[in-house]
Every structure is written in C-alpha cells, then in structure tokens.
Amino acid sequence: MSRMVITIAWVMSTCLALLWPAQVLAGMGDDFETRLARDLATRDPAVVEAFEAGNTARDQESWQEAQTHYRDALALDPDFAHAERRRCSVLMMLGEHEESRASCRRAMRLIESPENQVGLMMALAADPELSGSYHREIAKLAGKALDGPAAHDPEMLPAICQATMVADRLDLLERCHRMMTTVAGDTANTHFFGWMVAISKGELGDAEDEIDAAEAAGLDPEMVAEMRTSTADAEPWWWAAGRWLGIALAVWLCVFVVLVVVGIGLSHATLRSAESLPKTHSAHASGGAGALRKLYAVVLLLTCGFYYASLPLTLLLVITLGGGVIFGMLAIGHISIKLALIVLGATLLTVVALAKSLFVRVEEEDPGERLDLADAPMLRDVLDEVAQRVGTRAVDNVYLVPGADIAVFERGGVVEKLSGKSERCLILGIAAIDGMTAQQLKAILAHEYGHFSNRDTAGGGLALAVRRSMVAFAEGLAREGMATPINPAWLFVSNFYKLFLRISQGASRLQEVLADRWAVFSYGADAFEGGLRHVIDREVRFGLDTDAYLQAVVDTKQPLRNLYEESLGHVSSDPEQGVEAQVQEILEAEPSPFDSHPRPVDRFRWARALECDVPTDPDAHADAWSVLGSKEALQLQMTEFVRGNVARNMNIQIPS
C-alpha cells in the first residue's frame, strides 16, 4: 500500500478504534464467556471483586478508574491474564501506548489466546509513531491470527484487518477481507475493508461500490463522507481529467446530434415553405418563410460558435491520444523510439494545422476584369432599373468573367454591410450572354438583387470564416498525411464540415427560393425560367466545348483569337445531343442535403405558381448583347483574360 493509503488507513482506523478495542480486548463470544466464568471461579473473591469493578468503570468509559481496579486485581493475582489484557485496553484508550504494549505482552506471556494475540496487535497498531520492526511484528501476529480461531470470530476479524492496514500488508488485508466476507457477511465492517482493499489497489470504481454498500449496511454517515473524500483525493489527476473529458465528449456528441436533427428538420421546413405561396404580393421574407429564415440565422450562428468551442476539445483529444500511446509504452516497459517519434510528430503536426486554421486570411482579389460602367451606359441603366423594381441599391461595380456565372457579393466589414454602405459587386459571365434576351437577363439580375434586398450577403461573414477555417484545417491535415480515421482531429473536421454544409446550404436554398420571387414579381415567371434555363445550358456548353478546345490549342500550339466563336461545337459534330442530355439531368436531378440550390424544375414550378402582373417591356425580346455593347470586343477581352490565366497558372503562352 502507498504511504498516502496508509495515512487514510490510519485516520479510518483511529475512528474505528473507538468502536472495537475495549470489546475485542475484553474477549467476545459464548466460548470466551464460558472460559472467563470458569477462570473466575478459581480466583480469590477479592480479585474477582476488583476485576468486576474495573469492568463496570470500563463500560462507563471511566478509563482511569478502570485501569486502577485492574491494577489492584493484578496486585492480588499477577497471573490473571484477563485482567492484564483489559488493563491493556484501557491504557490504550488513555493514550499510554508504551505501558499498554507492555501490559498486552505480559498477557501474551501468561496465555497465548486469540484475544491476547489481537490485543497485542491493536496495542502495537494504536501508536502512530511506531514503524519498521513493530509493523513486521504486527504482520506476524496478524498472519498467525488469520490461521487460528480468531479468523472465524466476526468480532475479532475487524481488529485483525485494521492491524494489517497499519502494517502496510495488502496481502494480509485481502486475506482478512475474504474472511470477513465469509464469516461476517454483508456488514458495514466488511464493506469498509473491501473499500480499503480497492483503494489500495487503485480500483476506484470498486471503491465507490464498496462505499455505497457500506452506507446501505448502516455505516456511520460521517465515516461514509470521509471515505468518499479519501477516494476523491486518491484519484489520479489523469483519471479525473479522463472522466471530465468523457463528460465533455458526451455533451459534445449530444449537441452535435441535436444540430444534425435540427439541420434535417430545417431542410424539410424549407421545402414546405417553398411550396406555400406568399400571402401578400411581395418577395420579402414574411410569415413562415421569415420565421424560418431567422431560425436558420440563429442555428447557423450557434453552429459557428459550436465549431470554435469544439477546437479546444479536439486539441485535448489529440494530445491525450498521443500522450496515452507513449504512456502505454512506458507502462509495459518497452519504448519503441520510432513509434514514439511518429506519435509525437503526428500530434505536433495536427496541433500546428489546427492553430493555422484559426488565422486564415483571404485577400480580396477581383474575381474578373472590372468593367467601366461609364463605357456601358445601357448596362448601367438596366442595373438601376432592376434595382428600382426590387427596391434596393444597385451594384457599384461589374466584373466580367469568361464563364457563364452570374452572381453578386459585397465587400466591406460587417458594420458596412449591415449599414448598407458596402461595395456591391456583380459577377457577369460573358459565356451566358449568347442567346439570352434582355428580359431574361433582367430577371436573372432581379434574382441576384433579391439577395441584396433580403440581406443575404450582409450577415454571412462569420459563416464564411468558419468554412474557410475548416477547409484550411482539413487541407493542413491532408497535406501532412494526418487525414486518417485514427486522428480525432480529422474525424472532427471532416464530419463537422458535413454538418456545417447541411445547415448552411439549407439556409442558402431558402435564400434562393426567396430571391426567385423577386425575379418573378419583377419580370415574370417566363423570363425567370427562360433566363435560368439559358444560364444552365451555357454553363454546360461552355464547359464541354471550351475545356476540350483549350486542351487542343495547348497541345497543337495553335493561336487563339476568339475563344467563344472558335470553340463552339468543338466536342462533337452533334454537340446538342450531349448538351441537352446534361442540361436535362441538371434540371431534374434530386438535390443532396449539401446542395446550395433547390432543383431547377422545382424552382420553375414554384415560380409559375406565383400570380403576378409585370409591366410590359418594349425591349423584352431584344438580344442581351444590346445591353452590354460590343459582343466581339467583350469576347476578345475575355479571351485575352483566359490566355493570361493559362500563362500564369500553366506557364504556357498561347499566341493570339
């Protein structure tokens, strides 16, 4: 047993000593009473009178008076072993340990009975200043007692067990406890010593069970409290830390499950909201859609907070796992230097990747080539017209890109975005303009402006920061080879990213539905459906034709003048078949919970269900190029933009 356990044992033994010594040293059981009566019958009446007077004083806890009477009896009859043992007991209670031990040794010399064996053990154990040879003597006496009649006496066994604790002999204590279990059964004493065995062996769970059993068996509540305190003090720091870590993990998992359930529920609610028509002729989020939008914002905010709160727990898990592996090697006595270095390296790399993910900085670069709106007055007029119909502020800048993307975003801080003073930008893909009417372009722009009106672009800074942090974390782990299922950090970031996408993309789907209504109420369902179908068609066509044609240009080193005219139909002699099939698949494909947009055919159906009258546009069927200006000039500008990207990213110069 450790010294700490011995200290605990001494405190407990001192408490129990108040219950046991006098009775044990007096002797117990019917057999003893028979022997005592037979012995007294042979003694002088004056000796018996002094002995009985000592017993009366002892029962009244008048220890000094009792020891005087026992001394008188011994003065008359020095060979009276019972009087000597009882004098030993009251001297022990008076704290006169040296004289108590001498008295018990004399009793043992007179009769080596079980009572006298136990008496001497307790007299030796009662003095906290004794150690060394005295403890060995206690252990020797306890071993003899456990092999003799005292081991079968439920009154003497507790004293023997108590002595083994003071002697620091866990093996004898275990033997004594087994005897207690057999002889005494389910008693408070049995469970007390069972607790001592468990706590000495570091089996804290069994120790707690023994405390509960002792309490149920009627052990004094103050002793129960002392036992619980001692068990808590004996608990190693890593044990307590592990328990709290387990509780934290359980709470974390519960919150994670709740967020998953909430995310699924919100996704279904979004579909129901999209199916229900607005009660007023307005595209503003109101009623159920408005409440759902606010709920999404709250849940997304909580998810972001949950992510940052999870990082310390993830870090602790990683360090605990790495330290646990090394501690395990130390425990088995064999350390693999190579394995230890691998574990330390993996832990360090994971910690560094996590730390770096918290400080991701993204420089705001122009997404394309900025178009000077002073050179495109008709486009400026269209942008202002659409803004007026939607009831929001027009974009400040337009950036041309080669593809078919049409989107909006805001630049500036959170305060600027929420106050409406940010820079509003439009990304306009030149590839989307061919074959589009001006009315369709306006409807698509109205959809994008709807995001401004609904303030979809104003409050997503935190969500964007969390997504960037997660991506940086995952990329850092993958780059260092730490993206494995045995890495708690990888399990966390990969699964949490799915949860985050499910919730954030669900919010995005609701935003798209509400933005669609702005397009329909501003320019009609036909213009919106035609414009969206056209954009999807051009995205597919541009991807099929342009990628293949650019590869051919690079391989053959041929010049590239106008990407849009030269790449058209490059994939096959009958490109329509491949394009139409892919477009139809995109229109009808069932969206996954991680898609940011609802299924296009559903969006068309919801749009047509909205009853609205839109003003007649005299230029409804005009070509969208009439709004932008020179088709060839813009296509050549974007071709040069592509040529520059190829040169920067692939170090390949394509002649013009």
Uncertain runs with pLDDT below 50, 5 residues or more? 1-29
Give the strand line-up of the largest sheet.
1-2-4-3
> What gyration radius follows from the Cα positions, in whole Å?
44 Å
How far do the termini sit from each other? 88 Å
Report the principal-axis shape. rod-shaped
For the largest beta-sheet, the strand count, sense and barrel status come to:
4 strands, mixed
Question: How many individual β-strands?
Answer: 4
Query: Number of helical segments?
Result: 28
Structural class: mainly alpha
- Helical percentage: 55-70%
Q: Mean pLDDT, rounded to whole units? A: 83
Strand content: under 5%
What is the topology?
Elements: H1 3-17, H2 21-26, H3 30-41, H4 45-59, H5 63-76, H6 81-93, H7 97-110, H8 114-125, H9 133-146, H10 157-166, H11 170-183, H12 188-200, H13 204-216, H14 221-234, H15 237-275, H16 287-332, H17 337-357, E1 369-371, H18 377-390, E2 397-401, E3 406-411, H19 414-419, E4 423-429, H20 438-453, H21 461-479, H22 488-523, H23 525-556, H24 563-566, H25 575-588, H26 600-608, H27 625-628, H28 631-650
Parallel strand pairs: 2-4
Antiparallel strand pairs: 1-2, 3-4
Helix pairs in contact: 1-10, 1-14, 4-5, 5-6, 6-7, 6-8, 7-8, 8-9, 8-10, 9-10, 9-11, 10-11, 10-12, 11-12, 12-13, 13-14, 15-16, 15-22, 16-17, 16-22, 17-21, 18-20, 20-22, 20-23, 21-22, 22-23, 23-25, 23-26
